[in-house]
Amino acid sequence: MSFIVYPALDVLEGRCVRLAEGRRERVTIEGGDPATAARRFVAEGARFLHMVDLDGAFSGQPSVELVRLIAETAGDVPLQVGGGYRSLEAIDAAVEAGAARVMVGTAAASPEFLAQAASRYAEQLVVAIDARDGKVALRGWTELSELDAADLARACADAGIRRLLVTSTRRDGSLAGPDFELLDDVLEATRLPLIAAGGVASLDDLRALRAAGCEGAVAGAAIWSGRFTLAEALSALSEQEI
Hints:
alpha/beta
């Protein structure tokens, strides 16, 4: 399967934003409305859209209306959503609203929830392992657990999870390059398909993530700040597909 670039729609109070290290008070880029951005990415050839409901991440109550809006706007392009999905009911609502995949983070720290969700959703579920200094961050990255990212990855594999999204919270929005040490630790812990996030700044970063064994990568700040467009990324990666 070819490497997928996921253009990021991080939505806070109805606007696309980028937050430094996921901190609500550190908005680094303020974009337009998410539907307009979604149409732009679809026009540039997106194979998947990646949306995080930041209000939902901080409150634990994701917006079904936001999912429905972006799913309808995206049309045939599948939508991956996250941000505050901490119950089976919330995941159900997102899927019913049009999400192709739902990302769960905080709830995945519960073995019982992990097993139930893996059985119920299969390919529709992605576990988001958000890590700071190797430890898993929870509740919109506002709390740091004692759980190692690699240990959570192993637990996900044991529970039957099909896909992981691994984010370095210190790199997110930083344009400082991916955290390859973190990604390598998780890739060594499990052979699950892995989407990388946090720090992507260049087309070379995307090529390096593909070479490292990642299935795909989220590109947010790099696109929003003009380092490259989604179309340029897709063109560069298609030159030498694996």
